[in-house]
Amino acid sequence: MYAAGDTAAAYAEPGHQVLPSCRHAIPLGKLAGHNAAALLGLAPAAFAPKPYVTCLHLDGAGAVFATGWERAVRLTGPEAKARKHMITERWTCPPLDDAEEILRRGDHSRPLGEGERAA
User: How many angstroms separate the CA atoms of 81 and 58, rounded?
Assistant: First the structure.
């Protein structure tokens, strides 16, 4: 059974389960599709979100960007808010009018391109 989306949780490594969130929905979806196809003979792929980050923007309450399982705070305030907007508006949203680019970004095994980061 494969699960993906905002409510799916997976182990990123032994002892570390990612929180069900939109941050992991796209990588989990890529792998669920690939691993469902693996039933037809492809080798399955493991879920490995790197780097592990937490990025929250709570409107008037502020914003925070943290890294690692310890959630070390790296940015707060306007800088964290800007990072959250970059993640949600640019890095995780494929173009709507470019089928080739959509398929390229859907390839779980491809390296990140220039200007892209693992959210």
Answer: 9
Query: What percent of the chain has pLDDT above 70?
Result: 87
Rounded Cα distance between 22 and 69, Å, is 17
Instruction: Tell me the Ramachandran region of residue 11: left when phi exceeds 0, alpha when psi lies from -120 to 50, beta otherwise.
Output: beta
Model pTM? 0.62
Range 77-83 contact pairs with CB under 8 angstroms and sequence separation of 24 or more: 80/55, 80/56, 81/57, 83/55
- For 33, 56, 76, the CA distances from 3, given in Å and listed in that order, are 10, 24, 32
DSSP summary character for residue 17: E
Phi, psi at 100, each rounded to 5°: -65, -45
Hey, what amino acid is at 19? L
Distance between CA atoms of residues 82 and 77, nearest Å: 9
Task: Answer yes or no: are the C-beta atoms of 73 and 64 closer than 8 Å.
Answer: yes
pLDDT band at 119 (very low <50, low <70, confident <90, very high): very low
